[in-house]
Amino acid sequence: ETGVTQTPRHLVMGMTNKKSLKCEQHLGHNAMYWYKQSAKKPLELMFVYNFKEQTENNSVPSRFSPECPNSSHLFLHLHTLQPEDSALYLCASSQDFGGTPTYEQYFGPGTRLTVT
Amino acid sequence: RKEVEQDPGPFNVPEGATVAFNCTYSNSASQSFFWYRQDCRKEPKLLMSVYSSGNEDGRFTAQLNRASQYISLLIRDSKLSDSATYLCVVGMNYGGSQGNLIFGKGTKLSVKP
After folding, report:
1. Angle at the Cα of A73 from the Cα atoms of A68 and A78, rounded to 5 degrees
2. B80-113 burial: b if 16+ Cβ within 10 Å, else e
3. What is the pLDDT along chain B (113 residues), one digit of tens a residue?
4. Which residue in chain B has the smallest CA separation from A58?
5. Which residues have CB under 8 Å from B67's CB, separation 6+?
6. Beta strands of chain B (E only): which ranges?
7. How many CA atoms lie within 13 Å of A102's alpha carbon, on the beta-carbon side?
């Protein structure tokens, strides 16, 4: 399935590097999300974009910087990360019809990030 | 108190067994409920939505008890391919815009031959 794609799939970076994660959705959705999944922890929502506008930033450190140039693309810019930032970063998309209920989200395969 | 709580397992069951997973959520304003499945080193995928009246999809049955803030998933006639982590997910809406999904840590199921 290629509804939501993410690149790269694996990334190793040093603490002083700058890198970007890319997500693209081909589902015609209008909402996109970044999640972090660490071992033995539930998925943690990082950022939400609705109609290209950021609507949520869950107290994420400024070393993570999202960018949503259009409703199909989402980036996560990384700089001066820490080893504890090593995790699986998942992108998701959904269709926002407004009001209730909250609709299901479709996930990309993730980028496995290792910070050395 | 965690927002969505699940027994982490693992549940080790033989093929053909029936297995049930439970989940509780803390926010009574939650409005949407789902079970997602996540295979090892893969992304979560929607298994089924959960409705107040209960719903069934083949061997899978989901139940919701709003009064007790409790969600369940029953898998009948387990297959080897059912081995995965099952994530209980609760959705909230804020005003008129898309709400957020809150994920449990997941329950690991291992079906043995």
Report:
1. 60
2. eebbbbbbbbbbbbeeebbbbbbbbbbbbbebee
3. 568 999 998 999 999 999 999 999 998 888 889 999 999 989 999 999 998 888 999 999 999 999 999 999 999 999 999 999 999 999 876 554 446 788 999 999 999 99
4. B100
5. none
6. 4-6, 11-14, 19-25, 32-38, 44-49, 55-57, 60-65, 70-75, 84-94, 97-103, 107-112
7. 22
Amino acid, res. A88: L
Contact B86/B21 with Cβ under 8 angstroms? yes
Chain A interface includes B91 (CB < 8 A) = yes
Of A41, A50, A105, the CB nearest to B101: A105
Q: How far apart are alpha carbons B98 and B112 in whole angstroms?
A: 40
Mutate which of A23, A32, A33, A43 to test chain B, going by most B C-beta atoms within 10 A? A43
- Nearest of B65, B86, B72, B78 to residue B113 by alpha carbon: B78
Cβ(A45)–Cβ(A55) under 8 Å?
no
